[in-house]
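Students often ask why inverse folding is considered easier than folding. One informal answer: many sequences map to the same fold, so there is more than one right answer. In these notes we will look at a single instance of the problem. The structure comes first.
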């Protein structure tokens, strides 16, 4: 397939996922997951390598950077709601980052995984570009850590909003922070569908979790790895 055709296929697959989401209202109908299944199937059927696909969709990869920065816009409009919350938010995100890293390491250790796999799982809660850089420093598998981050993001976007509702957590700020802390950009896109407030705080949690994780990784690695 040509470059233009792969771009069209990727965008069309994502839009199909959004259409399924609107039609079914199912938490399982996540646009990113739907697009991954469709594009993955077409790659196998056409015999196209991932490297060729990545080259054909470089434009989309490039636009991910500005799109991530644009997540700050909803937060700017909700700045008034953030007053007096910065300290509680930082404490909550620090606790969440520690739990995420420690649980990932201990889970791999409990299942008998290797030391390298422990280092790969440690940073699964942060967005893919950050986890790749951190995993390289820790000595894990960067590509596998990106896969973990994407899977965690998709599962979180599918499950977390419904779980928070079942737990009776209605405050949009708390819901946004909870999802953004574990599901980064994919979860933030999901919370923007819920409301601008939830999306704004999810974007805030995504960014701060990345910062906190970068600061805590050396300490956790020194104690557990």
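Output (designed amino acids):
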């Amino acid at each position: 397939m040509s470059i233009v055709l792969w771009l069209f296929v990727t965008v069309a697959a994502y839009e199909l996922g959004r259409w399924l989401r609107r039609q079914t209202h199912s938490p399982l109908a996540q646009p990113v997951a739907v697009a991954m299944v469709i594009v993955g199937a077409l790659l196998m059927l056409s015999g196209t390598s991932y490297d060729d696909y990545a080259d054909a969709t470089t434009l989309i990869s490039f636009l991910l950077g500005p799109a991530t920065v644009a997540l700050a816009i909803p937060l700017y409009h909700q700045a008034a709601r953030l007053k007096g919350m910065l300290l509680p938010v930082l404490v909550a995100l620090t606790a969440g980052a520690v739990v995420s890293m420690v649980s990932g390491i201990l889970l791999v250790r409990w299942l008998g995984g290797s030391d390298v796999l422990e280092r790969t799982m440690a940073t699964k809660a942060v967005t893919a570009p950050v986890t790749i850089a951190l995993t390289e420093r820790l000595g894990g598998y960067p590509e596998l850590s990106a896969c973990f981050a994407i899977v965690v993001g998709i599962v979180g976007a599918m499950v977390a909003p419904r779980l928070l509702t079942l737990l009776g957590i209605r405050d949009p700020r708390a819901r946004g922070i909870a999802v953004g802390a574990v599901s980064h950009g994919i979860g933030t896109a999901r919370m923007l569908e819920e409301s601008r407030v939830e999306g704004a705080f999810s974007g805030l949690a995504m960014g701060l979790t990345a910062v906190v994780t970068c600061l805590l990784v050396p300490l956790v690695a020194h104690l557990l790895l």
